[in-house]
Amino acid sequence: MSDSPLKATPLTDAHRSAGARMVGFAGYEMPVQYADGVLKEHLWTRAHAGLFDVSHMGPAYLQLAHPSGDPEADHAAVSSLLEPLVCGDLKGLRRGQMRYTLRLNGEGGIEDDLIVGRPLSQDRQGTLLIVVNAGVKEADFAAIAAAVGARGELIRADEGGLIAVQGPEAEAVTAAIMPEAARLSFMTLAPAEFEGRRVIISRSGYTGEDGFEILTSAAQARPLWDRLLADARARPIGLGARDSLRLEAGLPLYGHDLDPTVSPVEASLDFAISKRRLRAGDFPGAARIAAEIASGAERRRIGLRILEGAPAREGAEIMGEAGENVGRITSGGFSPTLGRPIAMGFAPAALAQPGRRLSVVVRGKRQPAEVVVPPFVPHHYRRQP
Amino acid sequence: MRFSKEHEWVEVSGEVAAVGVTAYAAGQLGDVVFVELPELGKTVKAGEPLAVVESVKAASDVYAPVSGEVVEVNAGLPDAPETVNASPERDGWMVKLRLANPAEAEGLMDRAAYEQFLSTL
Description:
heterodimer; A: Gyrase A, domain 2; Alpha-Beta Plaits; Elongation Factor Tu (Ef-tu), domain 3; six-stranded mixed beta sheet; six-stranded antiparallel β-barrel; B: six-stranded antiparallel beta sheet; 4 helices; about 35% strand
């Protein structure tokens, strides 16, 4: 981390006045927890609706420099600018659809995981909405701009607000303000209005729950946050619970579970590799990834239920039956929903089958653990609105 | 009751001292979800790790505020770690130490001095 001063989001003052404990995260001053604390915030989100300030993330628009005016041709053209960097099918996105994809390096390692969305509106075709991780957004934006050159323009939108509403009551809370929310299905987006100004709302998130993410201007962020919070079903949730929620949902965290040495197959993110792209072999590291799909990766990202003892956290050693080192935990902690420790890590593919007994080492003690396929807590996505 | 700068408390009764974490520490830790206590018979010096408390987010050491031998642990605590938050300075006691050097406890802060110390944080 650099020593440069922390940046504020449009909601930093709101967090401070709500009594949040603030920490530096990816260069931003962010709430790690509010007065309720991580455990209660986590359980509130699973039962009601949690509000998250994710304005530190990196939304941006990629636009064609010279659109033809033919919406389908323009979508194909803008997709062809970004596809060489990622392994997902962007051309195949329907209007209003978004997709999780991975930016890869020449060795097939993951440089970032990101969301790419195709606008719903006829007059916005030839543009893609991209949302990248906060910690690597400068590298992402530089790589995209360099690849696109003069054929397109990358317009950052990360000075605005990005608010996530997550949990079983997220639809009721959000649709009370923006009725369009109720008509979205999982991983789709649409423009909406808040107080007469345009926002972008998507049915997506990072908790495993149903929910929405709302992209606003900087000026709109605080009024929307306050309006959402005026609903008694909604409470603000800090980064601490965001981390424990995504861990229970089995969702990897860039910089911890994913890094430039890890391939999508090793990361058990095979679903993010487009079959069309794989046949064409037209993304970075395609040869390695095709080989791993054909004959298996050497290691895989696994879930572990810790059967006894303390939470096994990032960096903890994973051992095989004979006490040999077989891997490391990359994310781990206590699951508030399950009331027991859970973790993700990497192990040799031969040891990655569900039900396999391994052990984890915490403060010098071996503790039994069982391989499971994440999620640890079932997803509650709304695939039909 | 005496207090350390690392936010442990000690209550001496004869040659044995009960040890726990202060209400301030419990508040800073957040909801405790796991407690690891030492083995009986373990000897510790003042300032050495004595126990571990974990929240959802992180593990934190509890340091021995005084030197001694572990003669009793709060055996109910691992099954009810929330007691550390509910009653940090009474039911949430962690360990009883047979004091190696009773004068050590006298060197710790009294409540007024600890509260003065907290006001500087």
